[in-house]
Amino acid sequence: MKNLGILLSGRGSNFVAIADSIAAGRLSNARIAVVISNRDEAPGLETARRRGLNALAISSKGKPREEHDRKVVAALQQNQVDLVCLAGYMRLLSPWFVQQFPSRILNIHPSLLPAFPGLEAQQQAFAYGVKVTGCTVHFVDEELDHGAIIVQKTVPVLDSDDEHTLAERILEQEHVAYTEAIRIVLEGNFEIKGRRIVRGQRSEVRLQK
Description:
A seven-stranded mixed β-sheet has the order 3-2-1-4-5-6-7, with helices on both faces. By secondary structure, the protein is of the alpha/beta class. Helix 1 (13-23) crosses helix 6 (163-187). It has helices spanning 13-23, 43-50, 65-78, 95-100, 121-128, 163-187; strands spanning 2-8, 30-37, 55-57, 83-86, 105-109, 132-139, 149-156, 190-193, 196-199. The protein is 34% helix and 24% strand. It has two domains: 1-101, 3-Layer(aba) Sandwich (Rossmann fold); 108-209, Rossmann fold, CATH 3.40.50. A hairpin with a 2-residue loop joins strand 8 and strand 9 (196-199).
């Protein structure tokens, strides 16, 4: 059984999707060991507590990035977290944080990376006029929305869409993609070759425990 640490800043709909997948047995080899938010008032923390999960607020307000990151990493380590999952965590991780969990931090982004990195990716896609967009689950490295891609899901942009309806349909696919990506990483049946994830080869990435 692998321990997941969830980091969120808001309502954490992807966190809920992960928790639901665990409850339904779609992620049978995982448990959520801790949910952490950098915002005391994040609705996702209350959701976690209602589900009986360990939920912590570690406020980032007014703190230097690495000072805050060290507190978060300490909490993850205390809870023996094997895999860190960012679920709407609106903080850039410091290089030091990333180095504490090499190839063991996942993020989900609402575009087909490398297209439309950064904030408001759905609005960027809609404004640009693309006909297809989607979402990406990737490993986190020291650069923004940059690490090796694990799973992508495509979403057509309909003539009837606005940026809000498009965002809703992308979010539906995010919930599917994140569970799929976590399963791939926990099974370890892959290898990272450059930027590519090659399935069917035993991973050199070793999760602790």
